[in-house]
Fold this protein.
Amino acid sequence: MKKLVIIFIALLPLLGTGEDKNTIITVSAKAIYVDPAPTFKATVSLSPAFSSYASDGMDLEALKTHFKKALESKGIAWEDIKETPFEFGFETMGYDKEGAVYEYTTTSIEKMRRFLEIKSLGLQRLNAIALLGINQREYQTLYNNALKDARSRATAIAAAMGKNIGKIVKVEDNNYIGKNLEVSIYYDRPVGEHIFSFNVAYETQ
């Protein structure tokens, strides 16, 4: 019986130390940026490898003819798209048939919408993005707004715990800082929107 009492008393200082230690609250700091005039870019590939027609007699040149007509029907000139925009193109995609990669760039929402609506034999969409031009002053504003958001939510959490928020003890930020930030075009998000976020940890008092 004495051994049990001695062990319990020995643990009391450790329990007290744990209670006195400040709690760290970590929240996600967020701010929203909307570019008023983004640049849109879409990349597609054209190849018999993606065709669903029964005959295997249509080669790449025939597919290009169909694609060109589809472009013109949407009011987009063949000269407005760029074939193999980078050093490598379809040859890196690993298919055993020939093909081509095309890129279309525009600042018009309507033109990009028309391009993405194009249906043609052997055509596959690879990506559709918006390029946002965020300058250094706008990034600073985003950081300031995000920190205000984080502190507000951390304060609410601390209050629910019966504590006060203290200083920032850690920040984890993996945001890309620079011009031409690439964001995917989604069906359920506003055009040119970017959610800027990073993690902030606060001590409590």
Remarks:
- The two ends are 40 Å apart (CA to CA).
